[in-house]
Design goal:
Layout (H helix, E strand, L loop, with lengths): L2 H32 L1 H4 L5 H8 L4 H16 L1 H8 L5 H7 L8 H10 L2 H11 L8 E4 L5 E4 L4 H14 L5 H16 L1 H7 L18 H11 L19 E5 L14 E5 H10 L1 H4 L2
Antiparallel strand pairs: 1-2, 3-4
Length: 281
Amino acid sequence: MNSQLLHEKALSLSRTYRESEAALLDVLMSLGKSRGYFELGYPNLFLYCTRALSLSEAQACYFSKVARKSEEVPELKQAIEEGVISLSQARRVVPVITKETAAAWIDKAAHLPQRELEREVCAINPKAQPREKIKVVSAERSELKVGISKKLELKLKRVREVIGPDQSLEAVLEQMADLFLKHKDPVEKARRVTVKAIKRTKRVSSGNFPAQVKHEVNRRDEGKCQALLPDGTRCESSSWTEHHHVKPRAHGGPDVASNLITLCNAHHRLTHQTGLQSLRL
């Protein structure tokens, strides 16, 4: 196949790709507006994109952000549908575009090189850049890229002074993370606490069941949501988790680890709305 034919094929596929991108955005916006992903068993649109559609985390993030902004600024979605800008260009102006400034930012997104566009966005919203990113550089190493405030920079500097001015920033972050997890992570706390160490039962406000039982559930579930998604995998969200009684207390369910399961806040709500059968716990 000669170069001209390859070029024509590339142009055709490019148009199809952008049309599919716009069509997918439209469907995701509808699912987001109706909370259809919730009815399908997914706690949020991001997890639906990564688990059900097998999109990468970056792609899911782009679609989710652009979908939310398009509800506020319909012109953004229209520009994507008409092929004026791509999804990638659209997500770069999400932090600054408004209904009043839509025409100007869409024009910039369509015509400015990526770096110039990012500089324009950053000039209006300094927090919009750089984009946070963790890049794998080897089997045991990753590179972290994140913007921080001057206030946080001073805090990091002070921590370095405390642990030793010759310490690397990596050492500073590691010690801060270790200290936080030691005192705040329920899974780490559960691992430290053994049944023998608990001589009497303590009542806690979160769930009002024995601390010993809470620690046992945290050790078993590792603080991750155990709800099964439609594809058969576990949700495993570790944010905003709660303990749920498999057999409700109102029906005689006991406060024991075998009757408790860890669920994220969204799946906990879904469980009470639709029942355990829909979650296949």
